[in-house]
């Protein structure tokens, strides 16, 4: 058993596999996991922004949408294709809503 924390990783691209690349520890040589594709990283970052913005207008959403956004906040950015479709749909339909609090004084 090794005490290695796998802090130094090497990514080897794997174009012959469905994975973007393999992650190996440079210190102990152990396979640590698979590297995400750049487009996956971008989509997950975009999802984080969408979820954050929707959370800011949560009181303006319907009950189902509030629960859905809350569940995505707890789950994180890695979501299913169906959840992605719903998130995109809700985000698109709420672009006109303000992220300012309805209680904010505009003097």
How are the SSEs ordered, and which strands pair?
Blueprint: E1 9-13, E2 21-25, E3 31-35, H1 38-56, H2 63-75, H3 81-93
Antiparallel strand pairs: 1-2, 2-3
Structural overview:
- The chain is of the alpha+beta class.
- The chain has two domains: about 5-35, no CATH class; about 40-95, no CATH class.
- Helices cover about 40% and strands about 15% of the residues.
- The protein has a three-stranded antiparallel beta sheet, with no helix packed on it.
- A hairpin with a 5-residue loop joins strand 2 (about 20-25) and strand 3 (about 30-35).
- Helix 1 (about 40-55) packs across helix 2 (about 65-75).
- The longest helix is centred in the middle third of the chain and has 19 residues, at about 40-55.
- The termini are far apart.
Q: How is this structure best summarized?
A:
The protein is α+β, with helices and mostly antiparallel strands. The protein folds into two domains: 7-36, no CATH class; 38-93, no CATH class. It has helices at residues 38-56, 63-75, 81-93; strands spanning 9-13, 21-25, 31-35.
| Overall geometry | elongated
Total number of helices = 3
Major sheet characteristics: 3 strands, antiparallel
Helix content: 40-55%
- Rg result: 20 Å
Class computed from helices, strands and strand pairing: alpha+beta
The termini sit apart by 65 Å
Elements, N to C (H/E) = EEEHHH
Q: How many distinct domains? A: 2
Q: What is the strand content? A: 5-15%
Strand order of the largest sheet: 1-2-3
């Amino acid at each position: 058993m090794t005490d290695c924390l796998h802090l130094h990783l090497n990514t080897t691209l794997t174009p012959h596999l469905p994975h973007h690349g393999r992650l190996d520890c440079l210190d102990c040589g152990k396979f640590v996991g698979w590297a995400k594709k750049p487009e996956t990283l971008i989509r997950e970052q975009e999802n984080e922004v969408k979820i954050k913005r929707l959370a800011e207008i949560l009181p303006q959403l319907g009950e189902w949408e509030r629960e859905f956004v809350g569940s995505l906040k707890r789950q994180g950015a890695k979501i299913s294709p169906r959840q992605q479709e719903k998130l995109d749909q809700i985000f698109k339909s709420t672009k006109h809503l303000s992220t300012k609090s309805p209680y904010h004084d505009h003097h």
